[in-house]
Design goal:
35% helix, 352 residues, alpha+beta, two-stranded antiparallel sheet, Surf1/Surf4
Length: 352
Amino acid sequence: MATEALLSRRGGVPGPTRGGLRGGPAAGTPTPSPYRGGVYRFLLTPRWWVINVFTLLAIPVCLFMGSWQLSRFETRVDTHNQQQDDASRERKAAARPLSDLLPVTAKTSGERATATGRYDTTHQLLVPDRRLDGRDGFYVLTLLRVDGDVGGGESVADGKAGAGAKDEPEAKAGAGAKALPVVRGWLPGDADDPAAAAKVPAPPSGEVTVTGALQASEHQGGDGVSAAGGLPHGQLGMISAASLVNLVPYQVYDAWVTSSQAPGALKPVPPTAAEGTGLDIKAFQNLGYTGEWFVFAGFVIFMWFRLFRREAETARDLALGITPPEPAAPTAPGADRTPDDAERTRSPSATA
C-alpha cells in the first residue's frame, strides 16, 4: 500500500488498459472530441476568405450568364417561328413597292418587293460557290436600272459614273437612276466552267417589272460569301453595294432582290433569314454557351467542396496528433547507401 501511494504521488501508477495500450481513459469515460478547439476554424483564415468570396461571386455570375445565353437562344427560336409564319403570309400577300421597304431591316427582310426598270445587259455577274438543295452552283446576278429615284435606301456611288454613262445607251435613257442587284436564279456547276456559264440565259431587254424577296447586303462570314479577291472577270464573291461600287459606273442600292421567277434553266433562289435572326449556327452557339456556363457553376461548387474536405481532413488529423510524413530527400546516385537501404536491397541469395 505504501508503495502504491508513493507511485501514485510520483504519477507512476499504471492506468487501466484500453485496446491493449496503457494510459488510455478508463472504461465508460467519454472520449474527448477531436473537434475541440474548432476544426473548421480554417474557414476564418485569409486564404479561405478569398476562396469563399470568389465562390459566392462566381456562382451567381455563371448562372446569370447561362440564363442570358439561354434567353438569346429562345429569342432566336421565337424569331425563327415568326419568320416561318411571316413567310407563309408573304407568299400569299401582294408585293409592295421597293420604296416602301427600304432601308432593309430585320422586319422588311424577306418581304416581297417589286421594282420596274431595265436590265444592264453589259454587267451580268456570276456569284460562285453557292449551294442549293445540297448541290454546288452559282447565282446569276443582273443589275436592274430602276427608273427614277425610289428613295429610302442607302447607295454607293462611283465618282466616274458620268464618264461610264456615255458608253451605255441604257444609262443615257436612265441618267441618274440607281441600280438594284437582282439574283435571277441559280445554276448547278462551276462558274469557271465555260460550259456551265454558257447555260446562263441572257437578261430580257426593254422595261421589265421584277418581283421577288428583298434581301439585305451580304457581309463577310455569311454562308457561301467569299470576301477574298482574285476572282475572274465577271464574277462577284459578295452581293453588296460595297463590292459592286468598283464594278459598275453608277449608284447601287444597299439591298438586293431574289427573283421569284427564274427563266430557262435557272432555279429560283429562296430568301435567307436576316442576319442575327433564325436558327443559324450562332443560335446553337448560344445554346452551347448556356451549357458551358452552367457547367462552370457546378465546377466551382465541386472545387469548393473538394478543397473544404481536404482541409477538414487535415485539421482532424492535426487535432488527433497525426502529422503527415515528410517526404524523404532523394539520394544522390553516387552517395553511400545507409545500412537500412543495403538491407532492403539485399538479394534473397545473399541472406541465405
